[in-house]
Amino acid sequence: xxxxxxxxxxxxxxxxxxxxxxxxxxxxxxxxxxxxxxxxxxxxxxxxxxxxxxxxxxxxxxxxxxxxxxxxxxxxxxxxxxxxxxxxxxxxxxxxxxxxxxxxxxxxxxxxxxxxxxxxxxxxxxxxxxxxxxxxxxxxxxxxxxxxxxxxxxxxxxxxxxxxxxxxxxxxxxxxxxxxxxxxxxxxxxxxxxxxxxxxxxxxxxxxxxxxxxxxxxxxxxxxxxxxxxxxxxxxxxxxxxxxxxxxxxxxxxxxxxxxxxxxxxxxxxxxxxxxxxxxxxxxxxxxxxxxxxxxxxxxxxxxxxxxxxxxxxxxxxxxxxxxxxxxxxxxxxxxxxxxxxxxxxxxxxxxxxxxxx
Length: 358
Ligand SMILES: Nc1ncnc2c1ncn2[C@@H]1O[C@H](COP(=O)(O)OP(=O)(O)OP(=O)(O)O)[C@@H](O)[C@H]1O
Fold this sequence. Notes:
It is found in: Cell membrane. Keywords: Antibiotic resistance, ATP-binding, Nucleotide-binding, Transport. Pfam families: ABC_tran (PF00005). The chain has 2 domains: about 10-270, P-loop containing nucleotide triphosphate hydrolases (Rossmann fold), CATH 3.40.50; about 275-340, Alpha-Beta Plaits. The protein is about 30% helix and about 25% strand. The chain contains 12 helices and 13 strands. The strands form 3 sheets. Strands 5-6-7-3-8-9 form a 6-stranded mixed beta sheet, sandwiched between helices. The chain has a 4-stranded antiparallel beta sheet with strand order 11-12-10-13. It has a 3-stranded antiparallel beta sheet with strand order 2-1-4. β8 (about 250-255) and β9 form a beta hairpin. α5 crosses α6 (about 165-170). The longest helix is centred in the middle third of the chain and has 16 residues, at about 215-230. The relative contact order is 0.13. Adenosine-5'-triphosphate (ATP) binds near residues 62 and 93.
């Protein structure tokens, strides 16, 4: 599927990129967002997300005083280069959507700065909006309209919109073009949401949990589409709870924890910063102290559960070789032997449990 040529706004040129390899399309500096009492002024300036969604509810929650003042984004910095896909990860409430809304220009930061294509997306919304596409976490469509009608209506407010049929085909909704939105499945609505975000052929695309609720096939099709968009030069920021999605798609990522960036970089680097594991059952008659000194094996920590010993290491090959040579020397078989490289999931869980500084 041809996803179309991009018009690259000159506004983005000349902004330094983080990796040094490209042009910084998005620049985030010391960004903060506070909800409630202290952040009310910023929230009062907040616009609704165009197609509704849960932002109104959130404002109401804040005004009802459920939580008077809360800093959801706590001084974060990052930048995204042109044609790069940057993923924001984190547990529920980590601050992903709060950050994304600032990038989308839907709210003003309490402090710090955001630049999208060289402009402030909140104050210079008119200059930024035509170049960005936004897929909210929960879009709101008129339920009586069909996807084709919804797209046609939205195309009327979009400069240089794709033809409606092309947008439907991109998200594989051609067969559902004339079904009322209220009769679409959750996954189909999600795809309609994506079609709306793609309608204006955006240079910068913001996707808030784009594949939540999609079945495996639809998820993979969305990944393929997102990859094609990125390869054609679209800069993409997405949030996701699927670590596999981040591993599949992201050039770089940041893991948020309590509104701060706990880890960031290329997926391989984030993973490499976390230890690998080797575990096995200590044979009867053997104890931890019978192993060679753990430090010499490159072990940085260990746990025992019953007879099972779990070693943490930054040098998996050295540790595994040392343990296997020891077992061979003693003539023993290590039952339940499991040698496991660090994964994004482990890195994520480590951060989510707040273990980063332990
Ligand atoms: N309008 C609001 N008023 C007060 N607190 C809010 C408001 N909106 C969000 N929060 C709080 O800010 C924190 C960050 O929320 P946010 O939605 O950004 O997290 P998230 O990482 O996107 O979570 P999820 O994965 O569940 O979507 C949460 O603790 C949330 O309760």
